[in-house]
Automatic annotation (TrEMBL):
GO molecular function, a single term: sodium-independent organic anion transmembrane transporter activity
Chain intervals for the UniProt region annotation (Disordered): 1-21
Keywords from the named record: Cell membrane, Disulfide bond, Ion transport, Membrane, Transmembrane, Transmembrane helix, Transport
Keyword Ion transport among UniProt keywords: yes
Comp. bias intervals (Polar residues): 1-15
Pfam families on file: OATP (PF03137)
Domain Kazal-like: 269-326
Name under which the protein is recorded: Solute carrier organic anion transporter family member
Coiled coil: none
Organism for this UniProt entry: Plectus sambesii
A GO cellular component annotation in the UniProt record: basolateral plasma membrane
Protein's cellular compartments: Cell membrane
Length: 479
């Protein structure tokens, strides 16, 4: 229970602390403002709280151990459990039960995320009825099974898309549509979890209700992948963010401007300006705030760099008396805490396409599992599922977060500088177009490769796939 035994979390920035980056008219400009990161007072302050923090490695180790043990216990559900369901229900109802099974496996992580372990192979050996001496032969038989390997590779590549979207889609909404983190998580959760569960159960119902043969089941999966390809251009819908004052654009001189605010300043952007020259601000504290002047939103690096002299008002979530806003605003010289909320209507269009995209992506899983169970010998089903989940994890879901994280890193424009370590930290500004192009390219390439594997399995091995007896009998009657 690391969260119960560890000390209370403390942040390097406290918006209610009057001694941190507060803008007072009598405060001199600190050496930190001019870029001197070796200033003793600044270094002492910035690193002071970090020095008091106790080592957290033991808590990380406990979390990793908990994930490992959870994987050991949960893995048999997806190997032995699937095989057990298929062997103990009517063949005509197998797909429906598997659809319900995987649907609940999708709804479950919405409450608590689940992980698989690399020990799944050893978990299912004895239940599969395989002696240790027969393992190399069984592995060789599976690896040389063309239909089994093509479908497994297709599921692995499809897993890249699923794992990446599940992990980073909320962050994608934050950066591409200027959505608050809490709202982004709610939107993704309310759309992704229901659509994934419904898609999984719906595909299982189709296979069961229409008694689809292996060939027709693969055709259904190919159709679903084609639909996801058609909806992939949804990534081209995004909203350009408001330019951050002091980083992407200079401070506007409201005194020389007309009624309309113009932020297209030609001078070199810098955090220090005449309006905040009396403030003692720290560039290591990125705490975005948003002002609205004449209907136009203006984001500032922090309340201090916006010249706000009054303390934070948590009830209203705003700072007052900000000198970098026009004096004509009077008492309304306030900035709101956090990023500027996007007024772009592209978010609605993106979510409208994202919902069926998730539906079709998750609808592929259950039909492919039902086909895989027909491509191997009856006694080796549990072992085959174990090998399949290892390949899906190693090729698909494990590298997916790394690839998606790389996309965000490449798209980064400005990173936060940590004066304690002297290294760049997390990114707070992204190039929206590049990020959208990378997501689109990754989605299209992944789905195309998945489609290629399934088409090859359909063309080369559809005639050798074993159908359930009831399905074959019904097909003969229909003919």
């Amino acid at each position: 229970m690391p969260h119960n035994t560890s000390e209370a979390y403390t942040s390097t920035y406290n918006s209610e602390d009057g001694d941190i980056s507060q803008c007072h008219h009598s405060s001199p400009i600190s050496s930190f403002q001019t870029g001197d990161l070796n200033a003793s007072t600044t270094a002492d302050f910035v690193c002071h709280s970090a020095e008091k923090q106790s080592g957290s490695f033991r808590y990380v180790f406990l979390f990793c151990l908990a994930h490992f043990l959870h994987g050991v216990g949960a893995t048999p559900l997806f190997t032995l459990g699937v095989s057990y369901i298929d062997e103990n229900v009517k063949p005509s109802l197998s797909s429906l039960y598997l659809g319900v099974f995987y649907a609940f496996a999708i709804f479950g992580p919405a409450i608590g995320r689940t992980t698989d372990s690399v020990s799944m192979l050893s978990t299912c050996l004895h239940s599969a009825g395989l002696d240790i001496r027969h393992i190399p032969i069984a592995v060789y038989r599976l690896l040389t099974n063309g239909s089994y390997m093509l479908i497994t590779l297709g599921m692995a590549v499809d897993g890249l898309i699923i794992a990446g979207a599940s992990t980073f889609m909320s962050k994608y909404l934050e950066r591409q549509f200027n959505v608050a983190p809490s709202r982004a998580n709610v939107l993704i959760g309310c759309i992704m979890v229901p659509m994934a569960g419904i898609g999984t159960m719906f595909s299982g119902f189709l296979v069961q209700h229409f008694r689809l043969t292996c060939r027709k089941t693969l055709q259904l999966c190919v159709a679903m992948i084609v639909l996801t390809l058609i909806m992939s251009p949804m990534y081209l819908i995004y909203c350009d963010h408001d330019k951050l004052v002091g980083i992407e654009t200079g401070y506007p001189d409201f005194e020389k401007m007309s009624a309309r605010v113009d932020l297209n300043i030609t001078e070199e952007p810098t955090l220090i300006a005449k309006c905040n020259s009396h403030c003692n601000c720290l560039a290591s504290e990125f705490h975005p705030v948003c002002a609205e002047v004449d209907g136009q939103q203006i984001p500032f690096y922090s309340p201090c760099f916006a010249g706000c002299s009054d303390k934070y008002e948590p009830m209203r979530k705003e700072y007052r008396n900000c000198s970098c806003l026009p004096a004509s605003m009077g008492a309304k010289r306030i900035v709101k805490n956090g990023y500027c909320e996007s007024k772009c209507s592209g978010l609605v269009a993106f979510l409208v396409l994202f919902a069926p995209f998730i539906f079709c992506t998750f609808a592929v899983g259950v039909p492919l599992i039902s086909v895989v169970l027909r491509t191997v010998d009856y006694a080796e089903r549990s072992f085959a599922l174990g090998i399949q989940w290892i390949l899906v994890r190693v090729i698909g879901t494990i590298p997916a977060p790394v690839l998606f994280g790389w996309m965000f890193d490449v798209s980064c424009i400005k990173r936060h500088f940590d004066p304690c370590t002297g290294h760049d930290g997390s990114c707070y500004l992204y190039y929206n177009k590049l990020l959208a192009d990378l997501f689109l390219a990754f989605s299209v390439v992944g789905q195309t490769v998945t489609l290629l594997f399934l088409v090859l399995a359909l063309v080369l091995y559809s005639g050798s796939l074993k159908d359930d007896p009831i399905t074959v009998e019904r097909q003969e009657i229909d003919e």
